[in-house]
Amino acid sequence: MRTSDYVRLLALAAIWGASFLFMRIAAPAFGSVNTTFLRVFFALIGLAVMLLLLRTPMQFHGKLKSAMVLGIINSGIPFLMYAIAALWLPAGYSAILNATTPLMGALIGFSFFNEQLTLRKWGGVMLGLIGIALITTTGELSLTGSFITGVLACLIATACYGCAGFLTRRWISERGGLDAKLVAFGSQLGAALFLLPFFGYTMVAGPVVNWAQPEVWASVLAVGFICTALAYLLYFRLIADIGPLRSLTVTFLIPPFGILWGYLVLGETLTGGFVMGGAIVCLAVWLVVSPARVVKPVSPQTER
């Protein structure tokens, strides 16, 4: 990986980490499903404006349908699953379970996409989970049906993330590629259309929402334009440059940034294991994304 790839990986983690801050402000006020749809909707608008300003030709070369399906798998379903999990799980539990994305990606890639994994990468994935557990503080919850439902919802979301990375490579990259801006736009279009019926149902049958809250709207706009539109541009570009498995390691870095933003903006207290956990996470990311050293065999002419 190049230095620019590491920089983009950190930037993506910082942006997605900030989404926890914005969702923490918006979801209680507007509702989880409403906030999720608005996030995708504003991301779609932001990407459309970006395409117009950059005068990007809307030429999908037969890949629009694939991009839209990717949006359902990589945005629509995961966002909805995390909204459901938020009804019963503390944010810490969701953050820990979100970190299983590279593990899910490794299992899915090994099982269905002929991805070769070394013991070093498996060790990095497991070490990353240990680091996330140290960073995140969670309370004790009884093993109820609601708790199990929340956990399963998070695992469905991470499985979708893991699968989407490989599908992006198969449907987009290996078929000649596509501008990352167009992939992001198509994916958010698919996610918005998928979430629209859920949004419509909550508007008709859900609780009354006080929409006149400027600070909440600011959070919704930020999570839509920055944490989704801009973030997915970086994400799909990373998949094209460094591959799906390495790109998925960004989930190891999201919780540290999420906790940091909460500390800086909301005055939340850092956990005792933050420094140690953060160091372990960095080591885990390095183990997973760094290439294995290839030992060249000694030629017969150089043997003594």
Automatic annotation (TrEMBL):
This protein's UniProt keywords:
Membrane, Transmembrane, Transmembrane helix
Subcellular locations according to the entry: Membrane
Q: Show where the EamA domain sits.
A: 9-136, 149-289
Work out whether the entry's keyword set contains Cell wall biogenesis/degradation. no
Give the bilayer topology. Answer: Multi-pass membrane protein
Cellular component GO terms, alphabetically? membrane
Q: Which Pfam families match?
A: EamA (PF00892)
Q: Which InterPro entries match?
A: AA-Vitamin_Transporters, EamA_dom, EmrE-like
- What sections of the protein cross the membrane? 36-54, 66-89, 95-113, 122-141, 147-168, 180-204, 216-235, 247-264, 270-289
Q: Which family does the UniProt entry place this protein in?
A: Belongs to the EamA transporter family.
Q: What is this protein called?
A: EamA family transporter
Q: Which organism is it from?
A: Aeromonas lusitana
> The organism's lineage?
Bacteria, Pseudomonadati, Pseudomonadota, Gammaproteobacteria, Aeromonadales
